[in-house]
Amino acid sequence: MPIGLPDPMTASESSDLRRMLLDDPGTVTHLLETLTGELIFADVVRQHSIRASSDNGLGVTVGHPITHRMAVLRGGRTDLPYIYAESRFLPERLSEMAQVQLDRTSDPIGRVLVAHGLKAGRQVLPQPGPLGSDALSVMAGFPSEVVWSRAYRLIIDERPVFAIREWFFRSVLEAMDREARS
Predict the structure, then answer these.
(1) What residues does 72 pair with on adjacent strands?
(2) 160 DSSP assignment
(3) CA dihedral (12, 13, 18, 19) positive or negative
(4) Residue ranges of the alpha helices (H) in the chain?
(5) CA of 50: how far to CAs of 7, 10, 63, in Å?
(6) Burial class of residue 142 (count of CB atoms within 10 Å of its CB; 0-12, 13-18, 19+)
(7) What is the value of pTM for the model shown?
């Protein structure tokens, strides 16, 4: 099956993953660390400034500068890829220290938000489409296929700051299975 399309999951796997993600009020980073028992890091493939399009999900005008970040969330001990994520965000809506941490470290967005005491609410966005060519080239050598995807916006202080699209690898389901057996 092409990597840009989620591999079919059983109804049970899909339901379990969705329930876990919806029931967990915390960050994806914390959820992954709990499931896997290892520190998660963001392998930032690319982070650069772009101009907002009309469907930017952040409530800014077309042409407004935003940051586009492509990252793979991996296990710090195993280096296993768990999630491929594309984020678009407004750095000016974050503290300077949070901006610096996102720019200069391998910390996932969730860890940065927690470190700076930023409480984020999630709003569901339309399901992400197939992966673009940049993403496909990043994921070409991964041993784990995409099984599920989602998109959402993070609201901080009543303003949208991040628009995030995530593609979950089978390794997340495997971690869920290990956690259930332990």
Answers:
(1) 43, 84
(2) E
(3) positive
(4) 11-23, 28-36, 96-104, 109-115, 133-139, 170-181
(5) 31, 38, 8
(6) middle
(7) 0.83
Q: Pick from 127, 173, 147, 165: which is nearest to 16 by CA?
A: 173
Spatial separation of the C-alpha atoms in residues 161 and 159, rounded to whole Å: 6
In the block, tokens 């998109």 appear at: 151
Amino acid at 126: P
| Long-range pairs for 130-133: beta carbons < 8 A, 24 or more residues apart | 130/2, 130/4, 130/5, 131/3, 131/4, 131/84, 131/167
- Taking only the tens of pLDDT, the chain with its 182 residues reads 334 434 444 444 445 555 555 555 578 898 899 889 999 999 999 999 999 999 899 999 999 999 999 999 999 999 999 999 999 999 999 999 999 999 999 999 999 999 999 999 999 998 766 666 666 666 666 656 888 888 999 999 999 999 999 988 888 888 887 777 76
CA dist 70 and 133 (Å) reads 12
